[in-house]
Amino acid sequence: MIRSNADRKPIYHVSRAALACIALLALSGCKTMNMGDITGSIGAPSKPASSSPADLKAYSERLRQAYEAHPDNRKIAMAYAKALRARELNDQAAAVMENIAIKYPKDREVLGAFGKALADDGQLQRAQDVLTHADSPDDPNWSVMNTRGSIADQLGDHQAAQKYYETALKLAPGEPSVLSNLGLSYALSHDLPRAESALREAVASPRADMRERQNLALVLALQGKFAEAEKVSEHDLSPEQARDNVASIRQMIAQSGDWRGIQTSAASRGRTTTVARARSFSASDGPAEAANDGDTSAASRKMQQLSLDASAR
C-alpha cells in the first residue's frame, strides 16, 4: 500500500472473524489501505467512514461514478484503483490503471500505481517492467524501490530484493514499511536474527503500524519466542486475540515443512537456539518458505505475498 511519510494513519477494523487475517496480515489477502492521500481530487468523494467491507464497497462505488464522469482524471483513476485493491478486486484495479497509463505514458506517479496494481494482481514480471519506467536513476522513488523489492522476493530473488530495500532506506531512512519488507526478506533467506533486528527497528518507528508489529510477532514466533510474540500482538489486539493469533502461528509452524525448513536452516548455522520448541504443535497449512533450488510452494508464495502487501501501500 502506498504511504507518504506525512500520512500513514491506517484505518483499523478488528473483529474475531478477521483474526485469521490479522495473524499474518496479507496471508489471506487482507489489506489495510490508507485512503487519506487520495481524496481532494475534482469529483472525488471523501474517504470511507471505516475499512469495513460495506464502507469500502460504498466508497469504491462513489469513486466508480466519479471515474466514469471524469475518465481522464488521473487522481480519480488512481483513487478508484486503490479502493478496488482494498477490496481485493485486483484485476479490475489493474485494468483501471492500464487505461489511465495509456493516457499518461510518461507520468511516473501513474506508472508507479500501475505497477503496484499489477503486482497485487500477480502479474509480477509485467509489474517489474512497468516499475522500471516509474523511476529515474537521477530521482529514484523509495516507494517504487520498495515495491520492486517485494516483487523480487516473490520471484525468489531475495538478494536482489534486499538491494532494492537498502536503496529505498537510503532514500527514506527508517521507513518502517521498507524495514518490515527487509525483515521478511531475511526470513525468506533463512536469516531469522537479522529478520528480527530489522523488524524491531521498524516497530520502533513512530510511523509503524499494525502490519509491522504483526510481522515482528510472526518472526518472533518462528523462533519459538511465543510469549514475546503475544506481547507484541497485544499492542493492536486484545489479550485473547493475541493469544489466538500466536497460537495459529504455532500451529502453522508445526504443520508446515516450509516453516521448519527456515527454522532448521537458521538453527544449523547457529543463528537461533529456540526454534525447535515450535515443532511440538500441530494444525493447518503454513505460509512460508525460503525458496530452495527454484522450488516455490504455495506456502512460499503466501510468505512472499506478505512482503508485497506490506510494500504496496
DSSP summary, beta strand count: 0
The secondary structure category is mainly alpha
Radius of gyration based on Cα positions: 19 Å
**What does the average pLDDT come to?**
75
Query: Helix content range of the residues, please?
Result: 55-70%
**Span from first to last CA?**
1 Å
Taking the sheet with the most strands, its summary is: none
Shape: globular
State the order of secondary-structure elements, H for helix, E for strand.
HHHHHHHHHHHHHHH
Low-pLDDT regions? 1-32, 36-41, 269-312
Description:
There is one protein chain. This protein has 15 helices and no strands. Helix content is 60%, strand content 0%. The model is unreliable at 1-32, 36-41 and 269-312 (pLDDT under 50). It is mainly alpha-helical. Helix 3 (74-86) runs antiparallel to helix 4 (90-103), helix 5 (108-120) packs antiparallel against helix 6 and helix 7 (142-154) packs antiparallel against helix 8.
